[in-house]
Amino acid sequence: METKKAIISVNNLVKKYDDFVAVQGLSFEVYENEIFGLLGPNGAGKTTTLEIIETLRDKTSGEIIVDGFSVDKQAHNIKQIIGVQLQAAGYYPNLNLIELIELFAGLYGANIKPMEMLEKVNLQDKAKAKYKALSGGQKQRFSIATTLINQPKIIFLDEPTTGLDPQARRNLWDLITEIRDAGTTVVITTHYMDEAEQLCDRVAFVERGQIIALDTPDNLIDKLINSGFERKKEVKKANLEDVFINLTGQEWRE
Ligand SMILES: Nc1ncnc2c1ncn2[C@@H]1O[C@H](COP(=O)(O)OP(=O)(O)OP(=O)(O)O)[C@@H](O)[C@H]1O
């Protein structure tokens, strides 16, 4: 059997905010070159966990290793091999997309061609546009492009498709899959179960700071079916979203 190599190992992670325990002893591994999903309700501790792995937030206890580097002692090394989405506030309003990418590339010391980065996310036509003039889907694609500037081994995407229409979401799923296929490991958080099912190679369900299930979407669904679960309503071969996509087409246009 093929053995998978862990690129992220989280061991007994605990995060307390004063008396409140937001993350209660999480342990999981993310394999090299997979799309790994952290799923769970609001407040489950997904963003906290992600930001601790990204070395942006301190942990209370536990051990995290990212590509052989410890978050405690080698945060600097970790920062160099990961791609993180910047907050929109970091996108200086007077700069256009090309200029923003040049700026970030300069900060990273990365030798990349800004137009090629925009082509990767299909925003070449918007090269001279300002960030605030983009649609929601375009903003997300630009934000994903910025995670790729330092040619990272791992990118982290926190709810990348929230607020997007079905076409924009599917386009983004294709983009994220292409990024994985090009050799990058992707860690994503989402509330959308259809997204997790379509996109993620493996998912962890987090509830109240604990992992309550972790497997491939297929295995989790099969386990439930084998336990005797049946949907109350017969599922049709298409749903309303399929109708929408069929009526309006699939092209990038948002
Ligand atoms: N800086 C903070 N100070 C105090 N409590 C915090 C802080 N950040 C997060 N929390 C609390 O920790 C818990 C987990 O928050 P977190 O943002 O990690 O959840 P999440 O799973 O990402 O939720 P969502 O899906 O809503 O983004 C929540 O109860 C939240 O209120």
From TrEMBL:
Bilayer-crossing regions: none
SUPFAM superfamilies recorded: P-loop containing nucleoside triphosphate hydrolases
PROSITE patterns per the UniProt record, alphabetical: ABC_TRANSPORTER_1 (PS00211), ABC_TRANSPORTER_2 (PS50893)
CDD domains for this protein: ABC_subfamily_A
Record SMART domains: AAA
Domain ABC transporter: 8-233
Swiss-Prot/TrEMBL keywords: ATP-binding, Nodulation, Nucleotide-binding, Transport
Pfam families: ABC_tran
Family assignment from sequence similarity: Belongs to the ABC transporter superfamily.
Name of this chain's protein: ABC transporter domain-containing protein
Source organism: Pedobacter jeongneungensis
